[in-house]
Amino acid sequence: MSKVILLSASPRKNSNTMDVLSICAKAIESENVEAEIISLRGKEIKSCIACNKCQEIGNCVLNDGLDEIINKIKNAQGFIPAAPVYFGTARADIMAALQRIGKVSRGANKFLSWMVGGPIAVARRGGQTITLQEMSMFFNINEMIIVGSNYWNMVFGSHNQDTNDDPEGLETIRQFGENVAKLILKINE
Ligand SMILES: Cc1cc2nc3c(=O)[nH]c(=O)nc-3n(C[C@H](O)[C@H](O)[C@H](O)COP(=O)(O)O)c2cc1C
């Protein structure tokens, strides 16, 4: 069965990003594609040190738990990273993670190539579009396929787990999840 990995970059327990990813995962599963949500919460993701060892070993030498996530992505057909906006851009940990995941893919067997997905950004008030653009760079340089929805993949939520107050944003994410699953099934036909 095809699988999509959804990666939350929120450090918070009661997280809007996790709430949004649950909706996305449900939409994916409703099309009979498997979905697994993974969180960076509690992890301290280091930045790429440009050692190029991934070209030899096919994984990352940094020992902070990202390798387990990379192994799951290697076995998936879809990838959806989601980040809270911090000062107008993506939370730093997700960019560190994406840069290392991309570096390993490019150094190894390009496992990201033709993987289906796209980024999601969550913010209290502003900065989602720049955050989406920032995260999209990872998709384009790794031959991945970004899927559209009926709006950009952005949701409003403050510290109070209140994304339900943005039904339009949640519907965009639901539609996005459905489209990701449908494209994966189409590619597999
Ligand atoms: C350091 C920091 C910077 C933030 N910067 C922004 C910002 O630039 N724009 C914004 O709308 N919200 C900003 N926020 C609020 C979060 O993006 C917002 O609360 C989001 O819903 C948190 O997602 P989470 O619950 O999944 O962690 C910031 C929060 C923190 C902790």
Automatic annotation (TrEMBL):
UniProtKB keywords: Flavoprotein, FMN, Oxidoreductase
Cofactor needs: FMN; [4Fe-4S] cluster
Membrane-traversing stretches: none
InterPro entries: Flavoprotein-like_sf (IPR029039), FMN_Rdtase-like_dom (IPR005025), ISF_SsuE-like (IPR051796)
Domain NADPH-dependent FMN reductase-like: 3-155
Pfam families: FMN_red
Molecular function as annotated in GO: oxidoreductase activity
Keyword match Nucleotide-binding: no
E.C. no: 1.3.99.24
Family the UniProt entry places it in: Belongs to the SsuE family. Isf subfamily.
PANTHER family xref list: NAD(P)H-DEPENDENT FMN-CONTAINING OXIDOREDUCTASE YWQN-RELATED
Protein's name in the database: 2-amino-4-deoxychorismate dehydrogenase
Species annotation: Methanobrevibacter curvatus
Lineage: Archaea, Methanobacteriati, Methanobacteriota, Methanomada group, Methanobacteria
